[in-house]
Amino acid sequence: MSELATLALDVGGTKIAAGLIGADGTLLYTATRPTRGDQGPEVVWAVVVELLGDVLAKAGGRVGAVGIGSAGPIDVNAGTVNPINIPGWRGFALRDRVAAAVPGVPVRLGGDGVCMALGEHRYGAGRGTRSMLGMVVSTGVGGGLVLDGAPFHGRTGNAGHVGHVVVDADGEPCRCGGRGCVETISSGPAMVRWALANGWTPETAEADAKALAAAAEAGDPVARRAFRRGTDALAAMIASVAAVCDLDLVVIGGGVAKSGALLFDPLRAALSEHARLDFLTGLHVVPAELGGDAGLVGAAALATLV
Ligand SMILES: [Zn+2]
């Protein structure tokens, strides 16, 4: 008798994805809808309900478990979420609501960064490693930890928020209320902002991270410096986290990571400057393998952990 598939939900600020995942981690079906986070809490919940119905129908009405990865902050103990980009969801009882909508099966909630890391650890670039940081560099910098082979949630479910590691104590204010967090230097919009302030003139109408990467590839000196500055801050953060957690691998996904060698070459060079302790010399930094699906397969893995 085959095991029932797992229903996974990945709640983000711009889109919500749902999927059906087989026992071997295969993504059997996936659907995505815009979050509509500006339209009030029940509108966003209606998006979730629609996705749950869609995936359940594909599963013939039966799944073995439900795993939820959500943008943070979250509270895994209470089962509630407070995603920064969904202003209507404050202390929103996501786990219990999903459990009521899909009765009779276990429902587990984790941070989206933890789910991404777990997905890459089980089925992607982190296979076979013991302790890894999975991170995403895009409009923000996020992450999650798998330590000694198990997802590490921390006290409230928010461990691995590496975007808010302070790399410049006198730096710019961060949206978290602090200052000098790596996100204020290394996120796509932060690098674009710095480049524009330092004389970069984009050739396209859209001054985004993709245009900045293209300019850097073409040899634009300011664009290259913006990437260098962003990757140096990322390297400082990675070296710090690796030293604290004794990591063997860092897996990086997200839009900015798609710039490939432009990000990874200077990042590895900077990391060799920052990570000098003997136990850090074997640390590898590699691109993610699962793309946007890591969160879904990781949420499913979380739901079926024994
Ligand atoms: Zn911050």
Structural class: alpha/beta
Number of strands: 12
Compressed to H and E, one letter per element, the order equals EEEHEEEHEHEEEHHHHEHEH
> Taking strands numbered 1, 2, ... along the chain, how are they ordered across the largest sheet?
3-2-1-4-7
- Rg, Å, rounded: 19 Å
**Beta-strand fraction estimate:** 15-25%
Shape descriptor:
globular
Number of helices: 9
* Largest sheet features: 5 strands, mixed
Cα end-to-end separation: 20 Å
Percent of residues in helices: 25-40%
Present as ligands are: zinc ion
* Parts with pLDDT < 50 across at least 5 consecutive residues: none
Can you walk me through this structure?
The structure is a single chain. Helix content is 36%, strand content 20%. The mean pLDDT is 95. Helix 5 (188-197) packs antiparallel against helix 7 and helix 6 (209-217) crosses helix 7. With 306 residues, the protein is of the alpha/beta class. The chain is built from nine helices and twelve strands. A hairpin with a 3-residue loop joins strand 1 and strand 2 (15-21). The strands form three sheets. Strands 3-2-1-4-7 form a five-stranded mixed beta sheet, with helices on both faces. Residues 164, 174, 176, 178, 181, 183 line the site of zinc ion (ZN).
List keywords for this structure.
306 residues; alpha/beta; five-stranded mixed beta sheet; 9 helices; binds zinc ion
Summary of the model, kept short:
With 306 residues, the chain is of the alpha/beta class. It has helices at 41-58, 94-101, 112-123, 183-186, 188-197, 209-217, 221-245, 261-274, 294-304; strands spanning 6-11, 15-21, 27-34, 65-70, 74-75, 80-81, 107-111, 132-137, 141-147, 150-152, 249-253, 284-287. Zinc ion (ZN) is lined by residues 164, 174, 176, 178, 181, 183.
